[in-house]
Prior knowledge:
Layout (H helix, E strand, L loop, with lengths): L30 H24 L2 H34 L1 H12 L4 H8 L8 H15 L5 H6 L1 E6 L6 H16 L4 E5 L5 H14 L3 E3 L6 H7 L5 E5 L8 H5 L3 H4 L5 E7 L4 H10 L7 E5 L8 H10 L3 E5 L8 E3 L6
Parallel strand pairs: 1-4, 1-5, 2-3, 2-4, 5-6, 6-7
Antiparallel strand pairs: 7-8
Helix pairs in contact: 2-3, 3-4, 3-5, 7-8
Amino acid sequence: MQTLDEDPVVDLRSVSPQPAEKQERPPLGSNTAHSEVDATFEHMMRQYRQPVAEKKEDELLAAMRSEIENLRLLLKGQMEQASDERWGMKNPLQAAVAERFEAQGVNRQMARQFASEADLFNTIEDAWQDALQGLARAIPVLDSQRLERQGVIALLGATGVGKTTTIAKLAIRYALKHGRDQLALVTTDSYRLAAYEQLRTLGRILDVPVRLIDENNSLDDVLQSLRHKSMVLIDTAGFHPGDAERVKQLQVLENYSAPIEKLLVLPSTCQSRVLHGVYELMEHIRLDGCVLSKVDEASSLGEVLSLVVEKQLPVAYITDGQKIPDDIRRARAEEL
């Protein structure tokens, strides 16, 4: 008999083997383990290669280009930010002045250029005045007194920028100062009847001749008939940005035998992109200067002055209202 203190004796031969619930993984360093890893890796690669092989080559290239462009833009932004931070930390006063310029519409490169002229030991207001003086020195100004004595002046520009109104102001000023006998008006705008009628009305008020240039009356013939006049003011047809064909018609002003002073009318209310677009359309024409119109309607002059300084396009006049002939005056860089 077996006592309680004794361990039970089990005959192992009588115990039938049971299936294992979980098979143990072979040791990591064994050949079997390596085979399993290789098999798993190969399976993953087959899954990866399958969709890639199905993609078209141009789609892959497009995706790569997109990624590269995104990285380029990201890097550019980080470099600009780092540059701004370094510039601001070294010259906080100049950075504040540059920021003030940019808030007024002056482009970044020009803002930094003029801000760098500020005295580092000044107050912010004194530094601002120093920078403004630098801007004033950079603004080219045309001697409009010379223009007002005698010659042929043509105003060019986009539709609605104030060319005809400016012509009226200049015409009345000239008539009051030099007399109406030496003045004549010309228009090349045969597209809009209203523009011609507006100039004819002005001609009747001033009692001065008004001529229209069209297919029957060339510029040469018209100006030849007015050669005894000391001042001839030419109002040209307006154009829309992108209307290159109509702009080409202004080339006739370049081909005239005698010099014609050509002034581009730039509205101060327009954005930099629009102003540059108008200027680029006129690049084939030699411009002598410009008129800044609608100054009274502009919240700031930074964008139009940036173009004037960048292109070194002298400013002859500024207009700041609809009153004729009062709201026009000669340009002064300090005032601008």
